[in-house]
Amino acid sequence: MSSVFLDDASRLNRPLLWLDFERYAAAVFAGQPTDWTTNAHRYADTLGQAQRLVRSDVVAIPVLDGWLEEASWRSLAGESLAEAVARWSEQGAQRRFVVEVMDALFHRVGTQAMLVMALPSPSQVLRRVGRTPPFSFDDLDDVGSALTAVLRSHCERKFAAVVLRCDEAEGLSDDEREACEPLLKSARYYGWGTALQLDAAPQGSPLNDTRGFDAVLLGNWSESALEASGIENAAGGLGAHFWSQAALQPQRQGMRYGEIPRDAIPERVAEHLTALHGSPR
What we know:
Layout: H1 3-12, E1 17-20, H2 22-28, H3 40-54, E2 58-62, H4 65-69, H5 81-90, H6 93-108, E3 114-120, H7 122-128, H8 137-153, E4 161-165, H9 174-189, E5 193-197, E6 215-218, H10 223-229, E7 234-237, H11 240-244, E8 256-259, H12 266-278
Parallel strand pairs: 1-8, 2-3, 3-4, 4-5, 5-6, 6-7, 7-8
Helix pairs in contact: 3-6, 5-8, 7-8, 8-9
């Protein structure tokens, strides 16, 4: 685990707890509103309210998710994605939404948790725009350059880290890893940590090289699978199975990570949160 995560764990005198709860908060705290990714006040207020209950040590702010969900994004399949993202970075409602959300969350949550910038990996962006694998290096590099520009446009923010979300089953390919190097180098230049989130990796499956990341997030993997993986800085154990079962007490040492499902039973979530915060860490 990197110094940024280790330092915070040392300050807290326990391993970190990283919970993704955006979709759960949207459903339970806000009733799944249609303006979830356009109403910055509602979005930030809901996440701030949910964080008081969840008490995650790390909170991710997804910078491009709302824009990627817009129907107009799919019309960009034939042009340079770097140019498209550059236009997003310069103007537009989604840009304003993200800036307002950041302002609010840094004010409301920044003293309670480490804030990290969440970005989709180049392959995830290409899939969302309608491209099909195998992806060429040129396309991956085009998107990687765009993502680097997005990160740099927010370099004045005191983010603790950037998390790259990849939905390829084996993780980043060699080409995608190379395309992401400028982004990762930029993050390190600004003093941020780096994390790789692999939600689509089947439990216990072999992964492409994950070295160089400060944390590898495998939320759907059990604690035994994490141990067997041999990835020293892997975090997980709190996937959908954890939240659906009767109260469980994790045994694995080190950072714990997972997403609270949007359809999780609130009473059971509360029980599990009590167990997580009440158990020795």
